[in-house]
Amino acid sequence: MADVIQLDEIPTLSLLYKLNRIPLDSDQTPLYPPNAAHNDKISIIKGDITVLAIDAIVNAANEALLGGGGVDGAIHRAAGPDLYDECLTLGGCEAGDAKISNGYELPSKKIIHAVGPRYYALPASEAEAKLKSCYRKGLELAVEHGQKSIAFPAISTGVFSYPNAKACNDALGEVRKFLDGADGDKLERVIFCNFLQKDQDIYYQTVSKYFPPPAEAEKTDEPEKASTDEADIAVRLPDAPTTEPQDPEEPSAKKQKTEEVDDFVVVAKEDAKDHNKGEL
């Protein structure tokens, strides 16, 4: 496993604005008013979600909750076989919903398994409602279980084919609504942890619509005024995994324990048509 990243090493949106890392489009009208307190809670990074030492990470799971490809498989491998055993007891999960488990060998305390929609299989309006529900349910579960920091991958944007830019807008909008609501103060950090550079770029280009900077924090011509320590935090982030999410027609993974190996291994079933993989 790569080096563990602590919460205080992850830059906030406020810091990213201060360092001029977030482009501000003068033609883009914010959809919400500035809120400095919200900006102190939001982070956008490109990295490996399995190395974040925070309260809860979100797994982009499939309905079985038993592991798969992409982020789903990476989380199951990093968490170890006890995660599979607990997920067997959860009874699966419908698209648009989420369930919570322990983090086991991960540095995060909890895993929130959110099942995103298959965009290609649903009317666009239904897919949108289910994706927004994934983010809302994830935030609600975090608060319900006393988790103050949570990281989301770009749910459904891999083999489930949800358009990346639309997914970003839906995610940012749902998180903004939650932070504006009655339970918003119960969360201290919401992290958007991107697997692909294109998602990171989209989040950087879009975030100011939902979390604009206060007027006094808008982009200046003097980024060097940010402290060296702050700049170091902003660049000391883990690299994203190098493997792409797998095709949804490939078989689902299952755990097998052998006499020769104490750890579990992932084995593919022969019939790929009856099983879908998890993905971003």
Give a verbal description of the structure.
The protein is α/β, with parallel strands linked by helices. The chain has one domain (5-24, 31-217): Leucine Aminopeptidase, subunit E, domain 1. The protein contains eight helices and ten strands. It has helices at residues 13-18, 36-39, 70-79, 81-88, 124-144, 164-180, 197-210, 228-235, and strands at residues 5-6, 42-46, 52-53, 56-61, 98-102, 110-115, 149-152, 189-194, 253-256, 265-268. Strands 2-8-7-4-6-5 form a six-stranded mixed beta sheet, with helices on both faces. β5 and β6 form a beta hairpin. The model is unreliable at 217-231 and 237-279 (pLDDT under 50). Residues 29-211 form the Macro domain. Residues 216-228, 268-280 have a biased composition (Basic and acidic residues). It holds the Pfam family Macro. Residues 214-280 are annotated as: Disordered. This is Macro domain-like protein.
